[in-house]
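Aim 2 progress update. The chain analyzed this quarter is reproduced below.
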Amino acid sequence: MNESWGNLALQRKPVNTEKRMGSRSVKQRSDIKTRRIPVTATPDSNQIAFQRAKAIRRTLARQRIRLLCGLVALVFAVTGVFALVVYRQAMILEMNFNNLAKENKITLLNQEASQISESLAQKTNLDEIRRQAVEKLGLQDPAHSQVVTVDVPDSDRVVYATPKTVSADSDTYLASVFTTIEGFFKTMNRQGQGN
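Predicted structure tokens:
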């Protein structure tokens, strides 16, 4: 039957009088001697509560420091990424400004060149050039019989000179060159007549 000690809600189980561990028997609980502990040896409940509160405060302080360090690191990381993006955009913007300045300079130079060529064209008097060519150089307008029409073929033609020994006489060399050029024009006449 269960025993009850003071509090009816607390019901204790009956204690076995003997327990065997291996071959030894444990003494009964009634044989265990109790001794008194002085009050000074037991910690004060206020002191225990103070120690627990101190430990909790330390734990919370460590958590706050970790959280603060994490937030600071996160702020630095976000700031670094933002600074990198801003720096890159600034470099791109600077290059765009340089390109725009160069394009403006090219436009101004083109305008100046066109103004210079226009002023040269205005200052150039073709009648005066013609007059000086006739008077100073003795040039004449070509007669109708002097006008030569040349048909230029669509394909290129290459005429090679015959390999000869190089002579020391320049007249002989010039005569061979003239013969080669004459042969080229003769082949052109034959080709023009064939078409």
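The first strand starts at residue 3 and ends at 5. The chain is about 60% helix and 5% strand. These observations will guide the mutagenesis experiments scheduled for the next reporting period.
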